[in-house]
Task: inverse folding
């Protein structure tokens, strides 16, 4: 179909479309994940950017928790993990998923405990206990002094 279209245009003397540009070979593997301005293509890129694999996973847990909390769509966290999982080989993906899930849960528990501590501190500092005046029943039935 395309060849016929070009022949008709050439026969009628119409302008021809530009030929397709040759595709250049990529210089390296594709960028799998961009986090904090670092382009992560392989595990070595993550280790170079964050110093160690554990430091990268800690930062990734923070970002994952923010994605989970900010998004209303539950699929976005799954899609985010699918992007992250492409960094490691297939055999290690289940371990990465467990490790990342445990780190996110620990971070979530830590933030929740910190929030509870702040609420308790604010409640004790701001609102001291106020004594109420005795009710009418307590005045009627109290012992005579």
Result:
């Amino acid at each position: 179909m395309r060849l016929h279209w070009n022949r008709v245009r050439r026969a009628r003397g119409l302008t021809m479309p530009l030929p397709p540009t040759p595709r250049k070979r990529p210089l390296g593997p594709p960028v799998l994940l961009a986090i904090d301005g670092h382009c992560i293509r392989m595990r070595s890129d993550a280790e170079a950017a964050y110093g160690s694999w554990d430091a990268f996973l800690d930062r990734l847990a923070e970002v994952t928790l923010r994605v989970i909390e900010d998004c209303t769509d539950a699929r976005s966290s799954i899609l985010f993990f699918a992007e992250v999982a492409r960094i490691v080989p297939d055999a290690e993906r289940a371990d990465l998923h467990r490790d990342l899930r445990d780190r996110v849960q620990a971070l979530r528990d830590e933030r929740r405990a910190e929030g509870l501590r702040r609420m308790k501190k604010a409640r004790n500092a701001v609102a001291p206990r106020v004594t109420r005046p005795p009710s009418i029943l307590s005045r009627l039935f109290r012992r005579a002094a």
Observations:
- Residues 123 and 133 are 22 Å apart (CA to CA).
- The two ends are 110 Å apart (CA to CA).
- Residues 28-125 form one domain.
- The mean pLDDT is 82.
